[in-house]
Specification:
Layout (H helix, E strand, L loop, with lengths): L1 H22 L1 H11 L3 H4 L16 H13 L5 H7 L6 H9 L9 H30 L4 H13 L1
Helix pairs in contact: 2-4, 2-7, 7-8
């Protein structure tokens, strides 16, 4: 019985790690791009420049990885690591790749696009919240009022 219980503990810990990975769309995007660099050209709806000002943690390295993959459409995982070996984020990329990828290869495209969509939604909600908070303390500009109206209509 003890050996069965000790075998369950790693699964429980692994599950927590999987949930953490799932909770971070940026990490998921980076992980999948490292696993399958062709996603940068295959999944056109992922356009990192749309969120350049969003301030998501890890976004700058994702944008750099994505740009490299677009410029080198035949790149593979090894080429990515070689190209970014001297980058400040290299240890983080290595650690991310050492985690088991919980996505089936046939689902990479869908999960990659979904992670980006979640980030877009997070950004839009955050921006609407920011404008609403500002409106409580000061006057919004006509442009901000229009932006807020569109954001609230989008919900």
């Amino acid at each position: 019985i003890k050996s069965a219980q000790s075998q369950r503990k790693p699964k429980k810990d692994f599950s927590k790690g999987a949930q953490k990975l799932e909770q971070s769309p940026v990490r998921m995007l980076i992980r999948l791009l490292l696993e399958a660099p062709q996603l940068a050209t295959a999944v056109r709806q992922v356009q990192p420049q749309l969120l350049v000002t969003a301030g998501f943690k890890g976004w700058p390295i994702f944008m750099q990885l994505h740009a490299y993959c677009v410029e080198h459409p035949n790149a593979n995982t090894g080429m990515l690591f070689e190209a970014f070996k001297d980058h400040d984020a290299s240890p983080h990329l290595t650690a991310l790749m050492q985690q088991e990828c919980l996505v089936n290869p046939e689902d990479y495209d869908t999960v990659y696009a979904d992670a980006f969509s979640r980030l877009i939604q997070q950004y839009l909600k955050g921006r609407a919240d920011e404008l609403l908070a500002k409106s409580r303390h000061s006057q919004l500009t006509p442009g901000e009022k229009e932006e807020l109206r569109k954001l609230l209509a989008h919900k």
